[in-house]
Amino acid sequence: MAQVTSEPQAGAPIPSEEISVEVSQAVIGRSPWELFWRRFRKDRFALAGLVIVFLMLTLALTAPLIAAQFHGPNEVHLDRLDSFGIPTGPQSEFWFGVDTAGRDLMVRVIYGARTSLFIAFFATGLATLIGVTLGMLAGFYRGKIDTVISRTIDVVLSLPVLLLSLGLVSACGLSKDGCLGGLIKPGLLLVSYVIGLFSWPYIARIVRGQVLSLREKEFIEAARSMGSANRRIMFREVLPNVAASIIVYTTLIIPNNILFEAALSFLGIGVPQETPSWGRQLSEAGDIFTVAWWMMLFPGLFLFLTTLAFNLVGDGLRDALDPKTGG
Amino acid sequence: MIHRARTCPGGWDPGDRLGSVKQEEGEGGYVRRYLKVLALVAVLGLVAAACGGDEGGGETGAETGAETGATGATGETGADIQPGGTLEFAMLGDVSAAFDPAKEYYSVTWEYYRCCLLRTLLGYTGKTTAEGGADLQPDIASALPEISSDGLTYTFTLKSGVNYSPPFEDVSVTSGDIVRALERVADPNASVGGYNFYYNIIEGFAEFGEGKADTITGVEAPDDSTLIVTLTAPSGYLPYLFSMHATAPIPPDGPDERLGAAEGHTKDYGRYLVTTGPYMFLGSENLDFSLPADEQTPVAGYEPGQSIQLVRNPGYDPATDGLRPAYADAINVSIGGDNNDLYNKIQAGELDLVVDGIVPPPVLRTYSTDPTLQPLLHINPSDAVRYISFNMAAPPFDDIHVRKAFNLALDKAGMRTLRGGESTGEIGGHIFVNSLQDNLLADYDPYATPNSAGDITAAQAEMAQSVYDTDGDGVCDDPVCSGILAVTDEADPYPDQAALITQNMEPLGLVFDIKSFERTTMYSKCNDPSAQVAICLAPGWGKDFPDGYTFADPLFGSAAIFPSCCNYSLLGASPELLQENGYSVTEVPSVDEQIATANAQTGDARFQGWADLDVTLMEEVVPWAPYFFDNNVDVTSARIVNYSFDQFAGLAAFDHFAIHPDAQ
User: Fold this and answer.
1) How far apart are CA B546 and CA B610, in angstroms?
2) Which of A42, A253, A284, A287 best probes binding to B when mutated, by most B CB atoms within 10 angstroms?
3) In the prediction, which pLDDT does A180 show?
């Protein structure tokens, strides 16, 4: 299909130069990534999402620098609480107000971005790694391997995720040494593992389905007839062809995982108490938001914006990568 | 406080999300995204709404009997007081042992017993310390006991005409009924979770409990109206033990049933409770003790976890009782709900009191600052102390200078602000609550600092004398000071307080590794020497009865070390115990002798004994950094025209509540 720079106006005469331009462009070869980028950048929502994601990343990475300009994330300012211990709202030194311990809410919300984004990337990375590996194996080898993996997926999908996470996190978070002989220690990593371990089946299923259909395609057959080993076929032929789907679904799992961490922290079993987390901040605001709205608004807004941004980017990626959606 | 059961729906299902994505194809991307935005907004809104009132579990509610006490009350005006009407109460959680008097170690239940259900030989007026509410009064006994000159024998004489509730309304209480109750308390199965250890001072009590004797030799009932109690050693707190409801009389029920009405109800006597107070459970008249215990139907007026309904006891004769006005005709209590919601209902006039709630800070501010609402706010010292407990065998707190430095650096005023400010309690400078020492140490604080905000200079000067500060600069430079294992409660306000403590101790070089737990777990970690918790940041302690012994022995006696409770500082721990649990320290000071000395005293000397012990602990031993004496804060509905505070239980005195005649 020929690429056009702009759609001609309906009914307007087409200038002859444009026709010649189009012809000359039609012969320009473009790499798939270039094609992707040309499509993606047209999606203003996706671009906005990308900007927000980068903004959040920047905030998370520069949190200590920002804190140095304002206040430490654990600095207690009792003079910012009233005589009933109720925090004061946004003011010149504390832009987002303070929390119930008199800590700078803005700095803590920015530190919360670190927690959320760490979970977003680490837990999702873990889920993707497991999901892609198992999905490829199941789809490629079929037979018993597929049966075992697919049933495992069914089992994991049928588990009451939140309840089980509650149990796991509390069991492993109880002692200083964690559980499984100290293998899983309480803290951010434990929460990441739990989230990662429950979100891989979605990716595995999608990858499996795609691999199942890809392995029957002619180019795989060609590779096989040329004597390629299974591993080579999987990595060099199949994987690149499912990469687009993996990227899309990974991006879409990220916001879920952020919300999952928020939910766990909201329930009081997420990251350790002193680690700033949006979910925990929302939970702390629960009792007092009628008189301290800022404690609910700012962490909620950041959580909302971040999940929204990842969703928009995910949608944009899918539109740009998936040939079926056109563009 | 608490157990905090949060049930906020954290609905999350990636399956749904991916499923919907799979179907989104072709055109309409923008519309789809707007919908997604709307959906996210809606989800966030739901989270916000769901979380608005989801902080369950009141502090008082879960801290059991050991946590609360009482003082101060609104005086009885008598102006609009007319008996009648039904009180509408709420509780966040149920009582702890389904109203079984031998097992209930919970101040909320004690108030139900005192005000309404169970009379004891000695009792209380349901008023504040200042009004005499902490003083023992004869209740079933006609007078305070006669004490022999050697302090070993106590003789009680019973009133006549004190009858039980139906179906025993024609049966009068006798001294044998008290013996029956004591025998039940001695049975470790019947009193599981209770406080029967206090009664071991009675001769033969322990032997009877262990099944080595047929009777408790130290308890005699020579006739129906006399009870003689003999002790193994002089113990001035004995009379208080007969104000505790584990000793409330149990009616006889046939010659074969040694435990009378409680026979066969080792686990569940509370649901078949025969009362002596002005109230009984609704439907008590339908109890049929002639049936075998397992065929009896429990009272209708107590549905565990659901509701409590008390009605007037027809067997009760007010002429025999000078302690309980019992104005209301009935008391309805709903169990369960959300703390914030329940206080909203009080403001709306749908409820009269949240028995075990915590007044939310915004509500407290409203009632404190609005002159029309101020009369409905009731603040009284509840005889409980909040403290930070040092494990005296764990470095760096095995060094007294570190413990003293901690006391000096702590911003006690800030700790109080984080608890909700001045109305929630007094800044504490010592261990025993003032009413247990007749205010002898009311102004005593050996670690007083300007504005109670901590004094870093003084603290560093103290730290400089420590072995853990080798260069004497007032900052701990030993590796043991970084990563000190600290345990705290995960419920408010303790995480906030932990942040303040961390900040306060930073200039001393003390860096904590803070672990937060649900309250019960926190207490068990602090109590277990093998957990090697160096510092426990969130304990509290309230009296069991108005005597210093309930602060001394369970907190500092060597017998209260694990598996007993609650000598977290390991005072008096044996070298073997320390070694077994992996401590390099071989000795921790003991105050056992001083406790025994004070306990042998009576009257003013007894108060002085507890005060002397307090001073020794604060200056020479320093097992704690006490910072706060609790107030009990209640908000009542506008139709309650009389409120009184029961110093014994540390709660509102339900029998003194009167409903405005127009609202009855």
Assistant:
1) 12
2) A287
3) 67
